[in-house]
């Protein structure tokens, strides 16, 4: 049997007979028809034929012109006869009793439905009255600047000519060209020619650093790094074959060949090498190689005039301003209805009801923190629209709300965790702002609020020190550009922070204190260079004298603490006596001496080393004494001390 015959037979077997079709149709029609109860109600409500005749006679009579009013005719038309009315009522009453018995249920159901509907509207209304609270995405992007730039794909180097969104694991190299890697809002890495690097971790930095995770591995060449990450968050870490360099806020240059040269041109960086750690500040550099101590050396002033340095510092200033403006714009775009709007009271009422209907302590805390952050976005929007007079109130409410949550919450641990999480995230969203930028007042309030929270890792002294560094960076840049008109005013505003810096009993960290003193020295040097200008002469002599007090006397001024010096000496001794033979010990000793050359603390380290190294066949104390004599001759211009 063919397939066609089989299908035809199947169709005939599956088709019901006409009788079966009629029976199915009748059953369906009976199911679709009105229920028996409705048919009986219709029969009961249909008036008899004589009643219908009477009604139609009255209708026809009412349509004829009479002396009665229209209302009277309508009344007589609608009213039924007494007998008919009584008959209809007697027939309907038995059918209305079941409905009357369940009326209380429907009344309760109606109120429950109304309450649920109101709750739904209130929960939905913030989506109409409030702007969405979202975190801006921060992608890592490669921008070929010029020349040949390549990306390794499937073990083949592919040329890049356009912008590219980067992912972890990518390998990039330049030959005769240059490229820029933008790490979202966190910073920039600029690759010089003949540079090879690998991307490791390019995710957003929204949490403190529990451990050093390399952001990029610099395999060869030279790279410039600008960081815009707050000091309490995970920084940008450059990995080399001899150690790690981490930048949060600042600019550095790194060159890798047989050794690694690290130079700090703005703020500071943390260097980790062979188990040692050191913080380098502006104007310092170090050279990393196997078996050499980690020693900070002072950079000659002429190094800042190098074209590579000048160009990158200039580009850093522009990039920072762009990121600060972008962060301010993001906050303003999320503001929604502003306090100056007539609908603002409705917005606050919706927030209050939304908070009231939120169940669970954690959810309620998160909602309160979210609405506190909304006050910051409102302040940003007010600043953007020029309504700076109304900014103080939302900023004050942001601060008071967070402090109240920190002290008045039932579960203190949960509240502290959520508050720290929120403040850390908000700090990252305003990190690029400096004094003079529109959004700096928001950054200042966030930092001060963070330090005021109980159990906060950010201390008030460090926050004040950070704001001092921000102000000094702007002030130094203004002086270097020849704009010294606002120096006196800005200097007077720095007095509270300067008082903390001068205080011997303050809890200011050594890194912040060291960086602040270096920044003040840079400001004093810049002002000294401008003293010959007419505008510089207009500065109050008392202010000029106060700033000049921070001038570094000479390069021999020590920059390391006594603890740091002792640690370096102990490291040198340990590396020398790793060897058991005389000549290898002497060779290591000479390598250590070369590593100390150019350090401002070279004399202090040599003096401690003189007493730390034991005498023996190597004659280490005598060799150290000879080095001290050579250094003395060098520092005195050939005159023996």
Verbal overview:
The chain has 641 residues and is α+β, with helices and mostly antiparallel strands. Among the domains are: 33 residues; 160 residues, Jelly Rolls, CATH 2.60.120.1440; 181 residues, no CATH class; 74 residues, no CATH class. 54% of the residues lie in helices and 15% in strands. The protein is built from 24 helices and 16 strands. Strands 9-10-11-13-12 form a five-stranded mixed beta barrel. The chain is elongated and about 140 Å long. It starts with a helix and ends in a 6-residue tail after the last helix. The C terminus is likely disordered.
Major sheet characteristics: 5 strands, mixed, barrel
Structural class: alpha+beta
Estimated share of beta-strand residues: 5-15%
Strand order of the largest sheet: 9-10-11-13-12
Spans of at least 5 consecutive residues whose pLDDT stays below 50 are: 65-70, 99-103, 119-128, 636-641
Number of helices: 24
Net shape: elongated
Oligomer: single chain
Q: Could you report the average pLDDT, rounded to the nearest whole number?
A: 79
Q: Report the strand count.
A: 16
User: Over all CA atoms, what is the radius of gyration?
Assistant: 41 Å
Q: How helix-rich are the residues, as a percent range?
A: 40-55%
How widely separated are the two ends?
122 Å
